[in-house]
Amino acid sequence: MASDRILNFSAGPSVLPDSVLEQATQGLLNFANTGIGIAEISHRSKEFLAFLDELESLIREQLEVPQTHRILFAQGGGTGQFAAVVMNILARDVLLRPNLAEGEERVLDYVVTGSWSSTAAKEAKKLTETVPNVRVNIAVDAKNNSADGASYDSLPPHSAYQFSENPALIYYCENETVNGIQFSKAPSDDASGEELNKKDETTFPFHLLPKNTLLPLVADYSSSFMSRPIPRLADHAIIYAGAQKNIGPAGLTILIVRQDCIVDVDAAVKLSRSAIPVPSILSYKYLADGKSVPNTPPVFSVYVSGLVLKRMKELGGPKYYEEFNRKKKEKVYETVREGEKRGVFRSKVPEDKGGSWMNVVFEVVGDGAEGRFLKGAESKGMKGLKGHRSVGGIRATLYNAVTEEATDALVAYMKEFIETETQA
Ligand code: PMP
Fold this sequence. Notes:
By secondary structure, the chain is α/β, with parallel strands linked by helices. The protein is 37% helix and 15% strand.
């Protein structure tokens, strides 16, 4: 691969494996021995449809997605899903409960742990403000439990969550890309291990959710999809992720949707004014009936994502990446703590308070120190370390394609920076 590639710590679009990019270059010229490039071939060709099937199997197999759930491919990214989730889930609720009792509402519960879940909740409010009998409830806002009461610096304790009794939707974002806050993977993946999970305040509080019902639980996995196994996957109604972080180029949105959430959205609109008319492109049923190709899909993004997932499978899938990513983040957090002790860095989200494995955020202390840190990093061929424009600071992104060598180079640079800054 070209030696002019730098070490890219960008949060998305993000670095992809060199070997995959080399393969993709070939595919751009000649896809699956058709003599036609991937960006030029019909999405209805048997070769492309076979590739799409394989992409689905790669996800199903590696995440152990049960047959209760469909895997769908969409466009529109996470932002598209902020709206699609609300519309499809409201239609589902209307079909399940067409007639509400006096005073009864359809409540959308949002768990807000950072700026993406906050944006999702705002989108839900915008869409439902004038819709009768629908209300958005902020089940918890992590800001209220933060040190300054105004920023996101940790996950809230389980006791802070106030879920509604019978919500139409329960929404959370597994990894907050901007704020560097992530739910920890529960010590036990299944309901029987709930006691264990209860003890860890940084797990998602599955034990507080309604029992004996098909949960309307929706998770935004945009920036952590495929980085490790998904806890309690089968209990989710919808899991979605844009491809542009761990999986491939922007354009493709991956959905895992439980069958009962693929509903006749048009029928719901006829039944009740609580259902919003859904544009076909956002309807899960439209996507499912059209086998994810009701209209032209993002063929190139599908292609590269397939190559990435094939490589992932060869390496050992999400379990392999869990260990790989754990090692990387431990090294970076340890160095942040070292810098903190020496007065050079300040952790924004401590590792044990919901610190993300994917996006490690910290500040560089002192006048002009952040600029010096970034400039020094760039001179060593490291880019993409500047924090999101809304929060500033440093964000070291450690997605699957960030190698151990790149992580080690970053850590070595951080240590060197600590030494330079503390020299009298
Ligand atoms: N959710 C999360 C967690 C994200 O990181 C992002 C994008 N960075 C979004 C949603 C929005 O996704 P998109 O840009 O694909 O609309």
